[in-house]
Structures are given as C-alpha cells and as structure tokens.
Design a protein that fits this description.
Elements: E1 5-7, E2 19-23, H1 28-33, H2 44-51, H3 60-69, E3 72-76, E4 78-82, E5 92-96, H4 99-105, E6 111-115, H5 117-127, E7 136-139, H6 151-158
Parallel strand pairs: 2-3, 2-6, 6-7
Antiparallel strand pairs: 1-4, 4-5
Length: 171
C-alpha cells in the first residue's frame, strides 16, 4: 500500500515571538490528535515545563498559551510529504513550509531552533540563505525515536533556548 501525502499544521505564533522552534513533520499520533508533539513519550512538553519551571500539564491549550507567553513560535520545516509511519528517515517528497514568509510577518523572531536533524536538513535544503541573516541552532530531537540521549541530556541541551529569550540559563 502506497503512502498518502500528509500535511502539517499551521504555525503557533503569539504576539511578539522571539524564537522559532521548527520540528520536521507531526507524527502519526500528532496528526490524529491535531496537536503538536502529541505522542506521550515525546519529551517536548516535559522539556518546556522544566525549562520554565512550570507544572507539567496535558491540557493542549495551556501548553500553547505558555509557549506564546514565553515568546516561542512553533512550526515545522515540512508543510507536506510522503511518510509511511512517523520516522523522519521515511520522509520523501517534502514540500517546505514558508519559513521566509513567517519571519517576514514576525520580525521579532531572532533565532531559529531545530528540534532534530531532519528539521534542520529540510530547512537548509530549501532556505539555506536565511541562515546568513538569523542565528540557527540544532537541538536534539525530543522524539521517542531519538533514544541515544537521556531526558536530562536533552533538557540540558534545550537550555540554549533561554538565552535569546532573555532568560538566564537555569540549573
């Protein structure tokens, strides 16, 4: 059975976002739930709660509100693709999201972070010139498929987002 083209979500953008976190493409579970990082073993929401010393919540609206309050925009490098299953390595025929348009409409964004290498690779393939004008940083994937690092190691690496948000790194 051939894979069907799948489509991601619109960006999550608050009033004055200062950073943009780019994933690759929502997982099967995320697409089913229509929520970013919906897989219960994905560490994204736990990392965000820990970074900002907030109580972890399963309420998606609260999660999104918190991101926006902290100046974080969220999107994916891939707008649509072919991908059987959820593994980034299975992505083919990727169509990129309009990252230049998002940055044009939100000039307050001053740094892009990639949630994993697949997101970075798609971004650089289609928008390499942007990396000359805005800082970009690769972070370890929060996906459960990226099991080579512990939660603590991922959390430590993700502390990098605190600097452009104007927050001191927290221990």
């Amino acid at each position: 059975m051939a894979a069907e083209r799948i489509f991601g979500f619109p960006p999550v953008v608050g009033v004055l976002p200062r950073i943009l976190i780019l994933g690759s493409m929502p997982s099967v579970k995320s697409l089913e739930e229509t929520q970013y990082y919906a897989h219960p073993r994905n560490a994204f929401w736990r990392i965000q709660a820990a970074l900002f010393e907030e109580e972890f919540t399963l309420d998606y609206e609260t999660r999104i509100w918190r991101l926006q309050e902290h100046g974080i925009a969220l999107w994916d490098s891939v707008a649509s693709c072919m991908r059987p299953g959820s593994l980034d390595a299975r992505i083919t025929q990727a169509v990129p999201n309009d990252i230049p348009g998002l940055l044009h409409d939100n000039p307050s964004i001053g740094h892009i972070f990639f949630n994993g290498r697949a997101s970075q690779q798609v971004f650089l393939r289609h928008h390499r010139a942007l990396a000359q004008y805005i800082p970009v940083t690769l972070l370890p994937s929060t996906s459960p498929a990226a099991a080579s690092l512990s939660f603590a190691q991922k959390l430590d690496a993700w502390r990098a987002i605190l600097v452009p948000l104007g927050l001191q790194e927290r221990s």
